[in-house]
Design goal:
The chain has 13 helices and 20 strands. By secondary structure, it is α/β, with parallel strands linked by helices. It binds adenosine-5'-diphosphate, aspartic acid and magnesium ion.
Length: 448
């Protein structure tokens, strides 16, 4: 037995691409063993292997026209259960004591919203007991359990949320998100080959980037770590170089931190909506009841007592909207519903987007130069998003990225779009502890 010491704990999360094959799993086991030289206790959250979750969803849709709810979570949770047992076997095979645990065995307690459950609490008793017994604890990501012992899942990409929740519950000095890229870049490095690794950013910037489509981190993982003041280190599974630190104490992010894109959207236009108080409320209440996420709403001015309402939603939710259409028409709320799936969203995300003059104009000019037509625009203090044609997306992302970050390959430390040098960065309160655990120092290079 070795007494549990938080300062000697390393919490890591490995994504599906990191454990895609048995060979990948053996390599992750070797990596965990190498990390044990620096961390006495290790808790590792793991996602399902490769495309397992997609394959399970596809199988479900071959037996059901609307696969959802409890049975779907029973099914999807299996992907992670397979991955954790294999990783634990690989560690044991190397002589390392390890134990795999499902969310239910740990006590990752969630509400009962199947397919998108939220974590209420993580019990730490079993985790601490296993750590004190000298085992590496391998926890199934993405899963949860309700107070009625029902299995839930946290939503796609939810393995990150598990990693963050475990780190928060155990008050770990760092939560490492180990993935197939070197960290958070100024754009998806698989789309923009000149995208730059961002060495450090605030929780707020990471949440906004993630929420607008940077798939590398789940926004709810960054929210949990912000709330519990746990630094996140997004880094590669395949080497030990520094990635991106997300933490408190970052005095100023770049004006434009990154360019995000999202292909999994649909644009819905409601035509001939009666111009009466309470109708928008009725429409969006119906959408909420059907669990439809609505991300951008535009209402055009009324003509002849009829409005046009456009909104953006996830492309896998259009069936529910089509079902609502007939009830709206029967109630004479809406004339017609148009659904456009050939769209995508591009955004510039940063810290002072709305209050820095000219950034939106630069984005629109870059899009115009490559002949991209903008369908809808929305702005907030932290981003400008445009809905554009789906086939234009990759060229649009490259053009907007070139406008704000140039075309050379360098690490992004300079505030893109800013006119002054960024202010000196204050050390994060827990930086020393985090770096000690990973045994590394943050390297900074000038971008321009
Ligand atoms: P994991 O399987 O480890 O959870 P994901 O596929 O969910 O990994 O996320 C990693 C992917 O996120 C990368 O392969 C990359 O294509 C994509 N990505 C999108 N935007 C960004 C960004 N700004 N920085 C880094 N990666 C990004
Ligand atoms: N396996 C789940 C998914 O594919 C969770 C994750 O990968 O983080 O969405
Ligand atoms: Mg992921």
């Amino acid at each position: 037995m070795s007494r549990f010491e938080r300062s000697k704990l390393l919490v890591q999360k490995y994504g599906g691409s990191s454990v895609a094959t048995p060979e990948h799993i053996r390599k992750v086991a070797d990596r965990i063993i190498a990390c044990q030289a620096e961390a006495r206790h290790m808790v590792v959250a793991v996602s399902a292997m490769g495309k397992t979750t997609d394959q399970l969803i596809s199988m479900a849709s071959q037996v059901s026209s609307r696969p959802a709810g409890r049975e779907m979570d029973q099914l999807l949770a299996c992907g992670e259960t397979i991955a954790v047992s294999l990783l634990s076997l690989a560690l044991q095979d190397r002589g390392v004591p390890a134990v795999s645990l499902t969310a239910s065995q740990v006590g990752i307690r969630t509400d009962g919203s199947f397919n998108r459950a939220r974590i209420a609490k993580v019990d730490t008793g079993r985790l601490v007991h296993e750590l004190e017994s000298g085992r590496v604890v391998i926890v199934a990501g993405f899963q949860g359990v309700t107070s009625d012992h029902e299995i839930t899942t946290l939503g796609r990409g939810g393995g990150d949320i598990t990693g963050a929740a475990l780190a928060a519950a155990l008050q770990a000095p760092v939560c490492e998100i180990c993935t197939d890229v070197d960290g958070v870049y100024t754009a998806d490095p698989n789309v923009v080959d000149t995208a730059r690794l961002v060495p450090e950013m605030s929780y707020e910037a990471a949440i906004e980037l993630a929420a607008s489509g940077a798939k590398v981190l789940h926004p709810r993982a960054a929210e949990i770590c912000m709330q519990y003041d746990v630094p996140i280190h997004v880094r590669s599974t395949f080497h030990r170089r520094q990635g991106t630190w997300i933490r408190g104490g970052v005095m100023e992010d770049a004006a434009v931190v990154g360019i995000t894109s999202d292909k999994k959207i649909a644009k819905v236009t409601l035509l001939e909506v009666r111009d009466e108080p309470g109708l928008a409320a009725a429409i969006f209440r119906d959408l909420a009841r059907e669990d439809v996420n609505v991300r951008l709403i535009i209402q055009a001015a009324a003509t002849h007592d009829r409005n046009r309402i456009t909104f953006v939603t996830d492309n896998d939710q259009v069936d529910r909207i089509k079902e609502l259409e007939s009830t709206w028409r029967k109630r004479h709320i809406v004339g017609e519903v148009l659904v456009d799936l050939d769209v995508a969203k591009i955004a510039i995300v940063g810290s002072r987007i709305a209050s820095t003059p000219g950034l939106a104009a630069r984005m629109f000019t870059a899009l115009a130069k490559v002949g991209v037509n903008i369908d809808c625009i929305s702005t907030s203090e932290m981003k400008v998003s445009c809905v554009i044609g789906r086939t234009d997306l990759d060229s649009a992302v490259r053009a907007v990225h070139a406008e704000f970050f140039g075309t050379s390959r360098q690490t992004a430390t300079r505030a893109a779009g800013a006119t002054k040098r960024p202010a000196a960065r204050k050390a994060a309160p827990r930086k020393a502890a985090a770096q000690k655990t990973t045994g590394a120092t943050t390297r900074r290079r000038s971008a321009r």
